[in-house]
Amino acid sequence: MVTIRPRTTPQTASTKATSDYDALRERIKIDRDALDKSVEEQAQVFLEVCDRHVNALSLRDEARDKLSRKDAEIARDARQKGEKSGTRVTEANINDSVMLHADHIKLSVELAELKKQSDLWGVLRDAFDQRMRMVRELVNLYAMGYYGANGSVGPRNTVRDSLAATARSKLDEDRKSRRQ
C-alpha cells in the first residue's frame, strides 16, 4: 500500500513549474462525453503551454549565455595566471581549467536542468497540438453519429447515408486534385 505524505518543503520555482507542468499534462486527456468543453478550452490551454515552452527556452538560452561568459572569464584568468607565473599555457590546459572549475560545473548542471525543462514543455506543446487534431476528429465522429444512439441501433436512413457517402467521396476527390 502506498501512503501519500504531504509536502514538507517549501515550493521552489522549479517545483512550481513541475506542478504546473503536471497539471497541464493531466489536461491532455479528452472526455468524449464533454467534447464541447474540450473544444472551448483547447486554444487557451495550448496558448498557455506555448507560453511556458517559450519561457523555458528563454531561460535555457540565458543559462547557456551565462555559462559561455563564465567559461570565458575562467579561461582569461587561467591565461593571466600562466603569464604571471611564466609557465607555458596550452589550450588544452585552459580547457581543462575551464571544465574542472566549480563555477563551470555548477552552471552546466543548471543548464542541463533548464534544457530538460524546455524539452518537457516542448513535448507537452506537441502533445497539445496532437490533442487539437484528436478533438477535431472526435467532433467529426460525433457529428457523423458515431457515438449517437441512432448510429448503432435501429434502422438506418439509407438515403441520408448514400448522400453522405457521395459527399465524402466528392470531398476526397477535390482534396486529391488540389494536392496534385
Keywords:
mainly alpha; single chain; disordered N terminus; 180 residues; elongated
The main β sheet shows up as: none
Instruction: Give the CA-CA distance, first to last residue.
Output: 60 Å
Structural class call reads mainly alpha
Which residue ranges are poorly predicted, with pLDDT under 50 across at least 5 consecutive positions? 1-12, 151-155
Question: Could you give the order of the helices and strands?
Answer: HHHHHH
Query: Please, what is the average pLDDT?
Result: 85
Q: Total number of β-strand segments?
A: 0
Q: Rg, please? A: 28 Å
Helix content: over 70%
Strand content: under 5%
What is the count of helical runs?
6
Outline:
The chain has helices at 13-26, 35-85, 91-100, 102-143, 149-152, 158-179. By secondary structure, the chain is mainly alpha-helical.
